[in-house]
Amino acid sequence: MATIARSQDAARKSDSTMQQRELCSEGSTKAWQLNIDSLGRKNKGRGQTQNYN
Questions:
Q1: Which residue stretches belong to region Disordered (predicted)?
Q2: Using CA atoms, how far apart are residues 5 and 3, in angstroms rounded to an integer?
Q3: Distance CA 38, CA 32 (A)
Q4: Spatial separation of the C-alpha atoms in residues 19 and 26, rounded to whole Å
C-alpha cells in the first residue's frame, strides 16, 4: 500500500511541475510577442522619421 501511495504522490508532483512549465512557457511567449510588437512599432517610427528628414 505504501508504494502505491508514493507513486500517486510522485504523479501529483510531476503534474504540478508540468502545469508550472506550461504557464511559464505561455508567459514567455506572450512577453516575446509583446517585445516583437514594440520592436515593430519602433522600427516603423524610425522609418517615418527618416522619411521626413
A1: 1-27
A2: 5
A3: 10
A4: 11
- Per residue, the 3-state secondary structure of 2-31, as one string, reads HHHHHHHHHHHHHHHHHHHHHHHHHHHHHH
Per-residue DSSP letter, 1: -
Q: What is the pLDDT of residues 7-35, one digit of tens each?
A: 777 777 767 666 666 666 666 677 666 66
What whole-number distance in Å separates Cα of residue 43 and Cα of residue 45? Answer: 5
Task: For cell 510531476, name the residue.
Answer: 14
**CA dihedral (24, 29, 32, 33) positive or negative:** negative
